[in-house]
Specification:
Helix content: 40-55%
Number of strands: 21
Structural class: alpha/beta
Strand order of the largest sheet: 5-6-4-7-8-3-9
Radius of gyration: 28 Å
Strand content: 5-15%
Number of helices: 31
Shape: globular
Largest sheet: 7 strands, parallel
Length: 742
């Protein structure tokens, strides 16, 4: 029998938002509504939409005043005490009432969308309208009930003037809705966490370096670097670009370009610009977005060397387990939820798929994109078929929400309005002083285009013969299948291979071995896919590049004579047409075709202007809004925008491989899964470096063939049972997953 006190403890003192916490305290509903409204208004005031966020916060849980919901919470509390079975989560919805009241207010649509989506995600316009009409009468009754408990509900501020100011077009309205939604879901999560988990809530306030302190550390490190670096022509140009960036940082916020050849110090210079610009103009954070996780690792290492290990918040899907004190680990995990940190390094996928998401978890960070410096590294890698919505989203962050965008690359794309049909950046300012002169000054290679005149193309044996003639040589192919074919023809037991047939840990080990061999003058012949072309600081005397997109060819050239230590005449980039090679489909194939025409016209690849002309023609040939995302945004179809705006469009599945050098980590992971009985977030992080991505259809073929298995404790972890070669990686004839996964 339960005692009277045990029964009474399950009865709240009045309308509540959440059940009792570990200290036995219920969360009063009025207190929660006002707190979320005030936090949301604080977030929104920075962006000129404080009243929208306030209304959304005040009304978001209005439906919890319904007697049925209060009974649901009592049943949950009784279940926690073993007094009754637990009710099904979500069995008593509460989002409709607040959304209906918000929709009835002049200009209240942004708050209505946000409220309706604050648990399961924002709906499309038709779905919201149906729910609002259906629940209008019940919502009005609950509002009257709520006013008796929460006096703030009696005086809702008007929104019509703000709506007219911030939402003059459908796309402005759509971005306003996203910002209001982000302010609401972040405020709701923070106040709920303060009730349910006060210790985690307190950890969020852990001190971190300010942007001013980071800038001071970078200045100090730069002075030391200048003092130690030899006065080579390359280092002179790097210093010139660095100083130009500091000068440009004083200009008003907006869109900037940093067009610097590979090896021109782009990473350090872009960070210097971002920190100086943020401090000068009172911006709140720097968000550094990179297309590939392999470059994220390298960039974070550079930043942490300069600023210290606690300065950088690294957030991407392949993050390895963090080391250090538990409090530091907890702070990083919490900060990744809403990017409440001064310096974030993330992936381009994470950035854009959060900006255009409709899910509460992903959207918590969206309001942090406002009033930030957003650095897009290797901006030319943005998917052509999504350029219009991606560029439009960035432009609205700049024009309406006070952000600055920096476009970094050696091959600057044509992101102007002429190329992107009135969507692009009309006033982007170039930071680099006289890019043509810089490209000439940093000219470190000779391009040999003569093999393209060979009508039959080069066989793999011919490419292998060229490689055998040099002690150090890098060959870059368009597909993994081609890379394996060249390896076979090369028949060199000492050759190395880079592609995503290797798990992440294997690729990092291979890159380290390549650097060691090059540094010590040992034979180093490497066959790679495009995975080597961005961010890998390798330095070969000869690079052989299969005909591909123009920007990819230039990236491959960045692995040749990177530091300018050899004479230009001894550093060659040879472009050849494979006699039997393949190419990824879609935009990659279109870009290859355009590049082929340019290269046959004796193009000067040392002229930066050629790349804007190339990209302009590429955008005319391709479709920069192939999935019609812009129309979906104008129609407020938030679920379909999420579905269509996926930067990595191939449906892939990761399989866990037993790479020999990580065998102990592999064995320990499987043992811990058996003990834990499931895959936790931490176990997934440990698994990431040992995963290889397979197309779903080939994954299913391999599973039917018995090459993929699962653990009874973790049916969502797929374990590779086929071969894994120490050079070639996963062995089973894996097909190409597409241009973004190479």
């Amino acid at each position: 029998m339960k005692t009277r006190d045990e029964w009474n403890s399950a009865i709240p003192p009045g309308p509540v938002a959440h059940t009792r916490n570990a200290m036995g305290r219920w969360h009063p509903l009025a207190e929660h509504l006002v707190a979320v409204a005030e936090i949301g208004r604080r977030f929104g005031d920075r962006l000129g939409l404080g009243e929208f966020a306030y209304i959304a916060g005040l009304l978001h849980d209005l439906g919890k005043y319904a007697p049925a919901f209060q009974e649901y919470l009592r049943a949950c509390q009784q279940a926690d005490q073993g007094l009754c079975p637990r009710p099904r989560p979500g069995s008593v919805p509460h989002k409709q009432a607040g959304a209906a009241v918000a929709a009835s207010l002049p200009g209240g649509a942004p708050a209505a969308f946000a409220i309706f989506g604050h648990h399961e995600g924002m709906p499309d316009r038709a779905a919201l309208k149906r729910e609002v009409v259906t629940h209008h009468a019940a919502a009005a009754a609950l509002l009257q009930l709520g006013k008796e408990d929460c006096p703030s509900l009696a005086s809702l501020p008007g929104l019509a003037d703000a709506a007219r100011r911030l939402a003059r077009t459908p796309l402005e309205s759509e971005m306003l809705i996203r910002m209001v939604f982000s302010c609401l879901v972040d405020a709701d999560a923070l106040d709920t966490e303060a009730h349910t988990d006060p210790s985690s809530s307190a950890t969020r306030s852990r001190p971190s370096l300010s942007l001013q302190e980071m800038e001071a550390l970078l200045v100090q490190d730069q002075h030391a670097l200048i003092a130690a670096a030899p006065a080579t022509p390359v280092n002179k140009i790097r210093r010139e670009v660095y100083c130009a960036a500091l000068k440009a940082a004083l200009e008003p916020p907006g869109v900037f370009k940093l067009t610097v050849p590979t090896g021109g110090g782009k990473t350090r210079t872009s960070l210097a610009f971002a920190l100086r610009h943020a401090v000068e103009h009172g911006l709140e954070r720097v968000i550094y977005a990179i297309p590939y996780t392999s470059i994220v690792d390298q960039t974070v290492e550079v930043f942490e060397t300069i600023l210290g290990p606690d300065a950088v918040l690294e957030h991407h899907s392949a993050l390895e387990p963090e080391t250090g004190a538990p409090e530091r680990d907890l702070w990083r995990r919490l900060a990744c939820q809403n990017w409440d940190a001064p310096l974030i390094v993330t992936t381009t996928v994470q950035l854009f798929e959060s900006l255009f998401s409709n899910r509460p978890g992903r959207c918590r960070k969206v309001h942090r994109l406002a009033r930030s410096v957003i650095v897009l590294d290797e901006v030319q890698t943005l998917p052509v078929k999504l350029l219009n919505p991606l560029v439009d989203g960035l432009r609205r962050l700049v024009e309406r929400y006070g952000s600055t965008v920096l476009l970094c690359t050696a091959t600057q794309p044509a992101l102007d309005r002429d190329s992107l049909v009135a969507i692009g950046f009309p006033d982007a300012r170039e930071i680099a002083p006289d890019p043509p002169r810089l490209f000439h000054g940093l000219r470190r290679v000779m391009y040999d285009l003569s093999p393209l005149d060979d009508g039959d193309g080069w066989t793999w044996e011919r490419v292998a013969r060229e490689m055998r003639g040099r002690d150090a040589c890098l060959a870059v192919l368009n597909t993994r299948k081609d890379a394996l074919a060249l390896l076979e023809a090369l028949d060199d037991d000492c050759a190395l291979h880079l592609s995503t047939l290797l798990c992440g840990r294997h690729r990092r080990d291979t890159l380290a071995e390549i650097r060691r061999r090059l540094a010590e003058g040992e034979p180093c012949r490497v066959v790679s896919t495009q995975v080597v072309e961005c961010g890998c600081d390798l330095d070969f005397p000869l690079v052989l590049r299969a005909l591909g997109p123009l920007d990819r060819i230039v990236q491959a050239a960045g692995r040749c004579n990177r530091e300018g230590q050899r004479p230009v005449g001894e550093s060659k980039v040879v472009i050849f047409r494979p006699a039997s090679g393949g190419s990824p489909r879609g935009s990659y194939a279109v870009a290859l075709s355009v590049a082929n025409r340019y290269l046959h016209g004796n193009a000067n690849l040392h002229d930066p202007a050629i790349y804007e002309r190339y990209f302009r023609e590429l955008y005319r040939q391709d479709d920069t809004d192939a999935r019609r995302v812009m129309k979906l945004r104008e129609d407020f179809d938030f679920p379909q925008v999420v579905e269509k705006l996926r930067l990595i469009e191939d449906d892939t599945v990761g399989v866990l491989v037993r790479y020999q050098e990580a065998a102990s980590e592999y064995d320990a992971l499987l043992a811990d899964v058996k003990v834990t009985g499931r895959m936790t977030r931490e176990l997934w992080r440990r698994a990431q470096p040992m995963l290889v991505s397979l197309l779903r259809r080939e994954f299913e073929e391999h599973r039917r063939a018995g090459l993929v298995d699962t653990l009874p404790e973790a049916p969502d972890l797929y374990v590779w049972k086929g071969g894994y070669d120490p050079v070639r990686g996963l062995q089973a004839g894996a097909r190409e997953p597409g241009e973004w996964i190479t």
